[in-house]
Structures are given as structure tokens and as C-alpha cells.
Amino acid sequence: MKKIKVNTIIALLITVFCFTYHLKAQNNTNTNERLSPKEQSIISIAALTAKGDLPRLKERLNIGLEAGITVNEIKEVLVHLYAYCGFPRSIRGLQTFMEVLDERKAKGINDKIGNDVSPVHEKGSKYDRGKKILGGLTQTPQPDTLTSYSAFAPVIDTFLKEHLFADIFERNVLTYSERELVTVSVLSTIGGVEPMLRSHLNICLNVGLTPEQLLQFVNIIKSTVGEHEATVAGTVLDEMLKNRE
Questions:
Q1: In what residue span(s) does the Carboxymuconolactone decarboxylase-like domain sit (predicted)?
Q2: Which residues of the chain have pLDDT under 70?
Q3: Angle of helix 54-66 relative to helix 71-80, nearest 10 degrees?
């Protein structure tokens, strides 16, 4: 009788242990598949800057700083997005950020400045460097012969390769995945650029973001920008994921 009770207790302990282990593993997986507070703030900051909603941007800038994003990282977010929504939005974002920093400093808050951009020592033409970076991001060799809009207006191809994918993407304050989160946030907000959004959501997966994290991205766009923008982004994401299968 005692032996039966001991065996029952051991079996029960094993069951509890297995359940606890499985639950912990599941929680760890979910945590790894979720965007970090820093990444979530990057999305909100980029989207609200692109939208021009400066009062709410102020709130998100404060939240981002409290989440541990450095001053230089936020500056880099606001600089990066100008390539997708223009200088006026970028500059207004930077001006708003200056106001936030002044207000926080007046309250005795000293925010972490963070690393400066390191000098770029890459050799070779900026066009070739940008072409190589774009090829790595898209995981597709870039053709030597221009087609479509690049053939129609070759200068835009030069600007794209030399400035966007060399001058900007070579800067090291933000990672590629963080830069892509800025990019898809802006593209989702301004609307009407679904082909570019599809391409950059695909790049997001190439640089290490997961489908689960991109679904969370869509939810953040919904709460930050609006239901329409989130619906469009979600539709593009769903189509892109099906095409990758």
C-alpha cells in the first residue's frame, strides 16, 4: 500500500514538473517572439512622426526614453524616416524631440546619450556599396541592367543606391531590423505605397524579425495610427507571408 502511494506521489510530481517545464518553455517562446519595448517605441515614434501627430509623438518620445532608448538612437530614427516621408516630417520630429529633452532636463532628468555614428571606412563607390547592401537585405542579386522606374528615371536608382542604402543604411546606431521597423511604420502610415510596404515587410523577415512580431507591429499601427492603416498593413503582410510559403 505504501509502495503504491509512493509511486502515485512520484508520478504526480513528474506530471507537475513536465507541465511547469512546458509552460515555462511556452512563455519563453512567446517572449522571444514579441517585440521588445524598445522596438515597440521605435514603431510608435516613426508612425506618429510620419503622421505629423506631434502632441502624441511627445508622449511616445517620453515613453521611448523611459524604455531605455538612447537620445542618439531616437535621433537616428527621426533622421532615417526622412527618406520615406520627407524632410518636413523628419525636421518637425527632431524639433519635437528637442522640446521633450529640454522639458526632461528642466525636471532634472538626464537621459542616456548613447553611441555616436561611427565613421564609414568602406572602400569602393557608394553606388556599388548600396547595391550590395540592397542585395543582402532582399536576399536577391541586384541586376546590372536597369528596369521599370529605374530605367525610366536612372537618377532615382542612383539616389536610392548611393544615399538610402549606402549613406543611411551603413550608419551603425540602429540595426538593420530596427531600420526596417522604422521603414514599415512610415510606409503603413502614409498609405498608397503597398508594393514598397510588401517589399520591406519581406526584408523584415530576412533581417530576423518573425511573423509573430510583424503581426504585433500591425496591432501597434492600429493603436497608434488607426484601424484603416492597420487593416491595409495586415492584408499586405498576410499576402506576403502566403507567397513565402
A1: 30-93, 159-229
A2: 1-32
A3: 140
